[in-house]
Amino acid sequence: MLEASNNNELPVIPGKRYFTIGEVSELCGVKPHVLRYWEQEFTQLKPVKRRGNRRYYQRHDVVLIREIRGLLYEQGFTIGGARHQLENEGKPDESNQDKKQLIREMLLELEELHALLA
Q: Chain-wide mean pLDDT for the chain?
């Protein structure tokens, strides 16, 4: 995850079970209104809501927010691109495999054409 590598300037996540939106805001370097917006855009981000609709984030939420922050602010992804990246994380990239297969086929055709012309 991005917790250790790309977000070196961020503070260490304390060993607590739940974090308030203010604490997460400080831990991730993102304002609270941005966190609430990201909840709408990223389905993976679902903090626990208690009395008065107060949000309580768990450690995995904080790590996910740091990953989203890294994708958007450091790597320059759009919201849609970051969402796609998170959805496909850990899955083999089928489109990449399709491209490799297409390149192999094109190379074979080019070699056949080269042999015909030579």
A: 86
pLDDT in tens, 47-66: 999 988 899 999 999 999 99
CB 88 within 8 A of CB 24: no
Mean pLDDT, to the nearest integer, of 86-112?
78
pLDDT of res. 93: 58
CATH annotation of 1-87: 1.10.1660.10
Contact in structure between 70 and 76 (CB atoms under 8 Å): no
Rounded Cα distance between 117 and 4, Å, is: 56
DSSP 3-state of 77: coil
**Of residues 19, 22, 64, 14, the one with CA closest to residue 42:** 64
Distance CA 61, CA 110 (A): 50
The string over 79-100, giving b where at least 16 C-beta atoms fall within 10 Å of a residue's C-beta and e elsewhere, is eeebbeebeeeeeeeeeeeeee
CA distance linking residue 28 with residue 45, whole number of Å = 14
